[in-house]
Amino acid sequence: MTVLDKGEAEIREFIKISKTRPFVVKDQGYLIPKKCVFNRIIGDSNLELRFANYLESCEDIVSYVKNYFAVHFKIDYKNADGDISNFYPDFLVKVDSKNVYVVETKGREDLDDPLKIERLKQWCKDINEAQTKIRYSWLYIKEDDFDAQKLHSFKQLITLFKE
């Protein structure tokens, strides 16, 4: 069987983050957010917690969410083995009522990461062509690059990390 990405996207349903069912997480470091509907932000890595803390300080965003499995936002992609896999980007950041950024943070890259980002780019392009209510953009934040910056706004992040 040959898998071919035809560059199409469809909106199957809109996800209302505030309707996410409660879920249990393992006991680990967390952040108490003010700009997110969840009562705690649990990061899969220290980078994710630091990034969430940075988002809390950004006065130029409305809100954000850590994209837990319970949120059910995923993008399918063809992995390095040629199989179909699901990609769960790390964060969704709402800049205003018409602009949302899908953000992937990354400490150490693996073989699938470039494939995920290419798929994310294509997904944003396709979804923006399929609807005009919200504009979706993507950002890929590498840990070393993030740590090298002294950022004070989300706009600065966009300027530095948007291709």
Describe this structure in words.
With 163 residues, this protein is of the alpha+beta class. It has a single domain, classed as Trna Endonuclease, Chain: A, domain 1. The protein is built from 4 helices and 8 strands. The protein has helices at 46-57, 113-130, 143-147, 154-161; strands at 30-31, 41-42, 63-66, 75-78, 84-87, 91-96, 99-106, 135-142. The strands form 3 sheets. A 4-stranded mixed β-sheet has the order 3-6-7-8, sandwiched between helices. The model has no long low-confidence stretch (mean pLDDT 87).
Could you name the key traits of this structure?
single chain, 163 residues, alpha+beta, Trna Endonuclease, Chain: A, domain 1, four-stranded mixed β-sheet, two-stranded antiparallel sheet
CATH topology: Trna Endonuclease, Chain: A, domain 1
Cα-atom radius of gyration: 16 Å
Tell me the total number of β-strands.
Answer: 8
**What order do the strands of the largest sheet run in, or round the barrel if closed?**
3-6-7-8
What structural class do you assign from the helix and strand content?
alpha+beta
Question: From the 3D coordinates, which CATH architecture would you assign?
Answer: 3-Layer(aba) Sandwich
Oligomer: single chain
Q: How many domains? A: 1
**How would you describe the shape?**
globular
- Strand content is 15-25%
* Average pLDDT for all residues: 87
| SSE order, one letter for each helix or strand | EEHEEEEEHEHH
The CATH class: Alpha Beta
Poorly predicted spans: none
Characterize the largest beta sheet: strand count, sense, and whether it forms a barrel. Answer: 4 strands, mixed
